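LOG
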Amino acid sequence: MFREIDTLEKSKLEQLYGILLNFLNKDDDTEEWNSLSKTQKKGILDAIDEMDSSEGISNESLLDKYRNK
């Protein structure tokens, strides 16, 4: 597992870090997810799919765009 993690590209490593933090900080808390509307859930899942297929814009790029305005 260490070798796999060690070879991850930066974006995947950051994603894994977030997942691990969520796992360590909350056991199985689905209350927040369950409180979202179907539209909100679909939007989040669609965004995850876009990022997984590299169709999305990185957070860094988006922040840079709006900082320069």
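LOG (cont.) second protein
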Amino acid sequence: MLDTFTFTPIQGENIFGFNVLTRGTSDPATPNPAGLIYNAVITYDLPDVVWRPPIVNTKRAIVKNGTTLPIKFRLRNTSGLIRTGQNVYLLITGPQGEVARFTRGHGSNGLRFARGNGQYIANFHTKRYGLQTGVAYTVSVNDGCTGQALGSLTIQVFGKGTQQHGKK
């Protein structure tokens, strides 16, 4: 039986290595050795996430509940800024687990990519997710092949429902 598979590694130096076990044969009908892949490994250099305003360059990473937060980032590897779209997704998690997932080209939860400047953007509409005020949420960019987080940061929601100065 012959198995095939495909993969889309992140741009950069990618190494696909495997070991082949060969068995010689003395049968004249099969003069070539038969091969069997018994170990396959894909190794590649994961890029760094470069967060873009408005989610960075502030004293506190906070967002008002009921608003839309544009989440922007770029990817950079040892060769510099990556200007081609990569197999990544944006994940927002909270104390109860996954809140939102943004993937490339999937409707309202789409992660858009600008070819010219290599920037990704997702619009996080906080009112759609029932977020809790005062709670920390993690925003992460993940590798689409392994699910590994390439970079993350924490945001906190404020606004309706918070108690300020002893008042409701």
